[in-house]
Amino acid sequence: MVRTHCPYCALQCGTRLEASPSGGVTVLPDEEFPVNAGRLCVKGWTAPGVLTAADRLTAPLIRPRPGAARQPASWAAALDHVGRELRRITAASGPDAVAVFGGGGLTNEKAYTLGKFARVALGTSQVDYNGRFCMSSAAAAGSAAFGVDRGLPFPVTDLAQAEVVLLAGANVAETMPPLMRHLEGADLIVVDPRRSATAERAALHLSPAPGTDLALALGLLHTAVADGHLDREYLDRRTHGFDETWRHAAEWWPERVERVTGVPVADQRAAVRLLASARRRYLLTGRGAEQHSKGTDTVSAYINLALALGLPGRAGSGYGCLTGQGNGQGGREHGQKADQLPGYRKITDPAARAHVARVWGVDPDALPGPGPSGYELLDSLGRPGGPRALLVFGSNPVVSAPAARRIADRLASLDLLVVADFVPSETVELADVVLPVTQWAEEDGTMTNLEGRVLRRRRALDPPPGVRSDLWVLRELAVRLGQPPERFPDDPRTVFAELRRASAGGPADYSGIDFDALDTPAHWPSRAEGESTPRLFLDRFAHDDGRARFRPVTHRDAAELPDADYPLYATTGRVLAQYQSGAQTRRVPELTAGAGEAFVEVHPDTAGRFGVADGGLARVVSRRGGTVARVRTVASLRTDTVFLPFHFPDAGRANLITNPVLDPVSRMPEFKVCAVRLEPLEEPPAETGGGPS
């Protein structure tokens, strides 16, 4: 019996794996892990199904020449080929002609090594990861306000004592169901254009038009001040900058907010009254607040509201962001992000560069500077002056990136695309070289969940013959690029020990955490052996003066609004039975039975207006293209809005229509709102297969 954690969302629910005689594993709940206390969602219970997927990758594949079919190859041949091509491309066009794209599901050791590999073995600045599509806006807003970014600066279990919780853009009943056990005693205020499964359980549901979340947050702050709920003593003692912030929010009186968002004045006042009158209250944001061209400002506006009410840094109350991906927290702390070094250090900081270079045994001046953000990197591939080669670890951008068709074209234009994965994702299908790597139950390492709790991932069974770990792959490639093998160890304990040294003194300091002592998980920062910090900010915030910062913001429209040609808002999100791009969950029969094809939710009146029928097919068309989906009529949906989950491939990709315009601070794409129209489609003939996914 092995104690480990679910491979999916950032709750990282505790599980126990029991090996079976046939070579697989059975999942049992871990009642001792406090985050889930024995509860799992359907994805957690069925996670072993991916281990034995029929199309599991077990041998390297090489495309010997452009246009040729890929052929199985030995590991030596595959790695020699990649090393040879990387050296050729770098010699011809410089180190920035090679790029690296990582993922928020990689262990801390993999994320750390991937960033190190990019900057030391390749010498490239062209490295980023798919967390840019998930957490970057909240990270930017949280860092500006508090001086450090940790999704929840308090344990998840604290929420169980809450009287009121405001969830802005988070459908946790579907995306992380075990979290709901901690919210059962609270009155929920849910901000979501849809009446989601979470909104169904809410005491109050606010349904703003897509793209107007920022106006609503400003209006809630206006109401808090106008109705006498401002915590002036807290502001004077623990914050800076309220007066300038109020000058912006003063323009957003409730009636104006109602005109812009559609949220009634009475509901705005009721939300603030509920939140302000409770003794133990929390404000939590999710992707619905973040994935906008103004996502950083929107999260900042909610943080401003929380600060005005005196929530952050107070026992029994607080602000937090619900991290999405399994290692979305740790994945952004240790160097696979374009502008960061391990320990959440800034790559432009000379002292940070010197510290990390010392740990790595290289010259600080040899480290490249910051590179482009995730979407910008992907969109530059194969263009003049852009990278000619890309290595992908733990991501599927053909499905997950906005303007997905354009990104697929950019990937296809490369001289070399190398993908390390364990199933043939849509990105794998484009690769010139495929490297089969281990899955969660086949490897050791650490993960950091949404509350900053560092956890052990434990190996429960051997990988299939021919499969190697990502750390081994990176070491072998580094050696072929001229690095000494000892600079890139492939043992997770050894890598974690180095990560501890590299992170020491940084905002995300792991230096006091012992890999072998993680039977008792530790919250970072941990600067001394055995130290754990489950609750941040109780005495001071992480700015030099110990005070939190208000950040003045004001509303602006989404980059694209409905018009005569595209008269509806489209918004995207997740569903219970699938995860991320679906590359894993779409291979589990129990999950595809519940959500096996792309669909679009439409109000019945809107469906009638566009001539589409419940259960029929429709094409959802934006200025960037169209996606095909099965129509589901939903009477609670706004009549001006359609909703699509983004887990499905091929013609059912929701990201064929999404807008790649970026937040100017976080560089987050605007996934949550674009203008579309609906067109009815005939059902394909049965003999041709068909269906939207």
- Radius of gyration from CA coordinates: 24 Å
Low-confidence stretches: 687-691
Total number of helices: 21
Helix content percent band = 25-40%
Helix and strand composition category: alpha/beta
Per DSSP E runs of 2 or more residues, the count of β-strands stands at 30
Strand composition percent? 15-25%
- Morphology call: globular
Mean pLDDT: 96
GO biological process, one term: respiratory electron transport chain
Pfam family, one: Molydop_binding
Protein name: Molybdopterin oxidoreductase family protein
GO molecular function: 4 iron, 4 sulfur cluster binding; metal ion binding; molybdopterin cofactor binding; NADH dehydrogenase activity
How would you describe what is shown here?
The chain is α/β, with parallel strands linked by helices and 693 residues long. The chain contains 21 helices and 30 strands. Strands 5-4-18-17-16-6-7 form a 7-stranded mixed β-sheet, covered by helices on one side. β2 and β3 (25-29) form a beta hairpin. It is globular. The two termini are 38 Å apart.
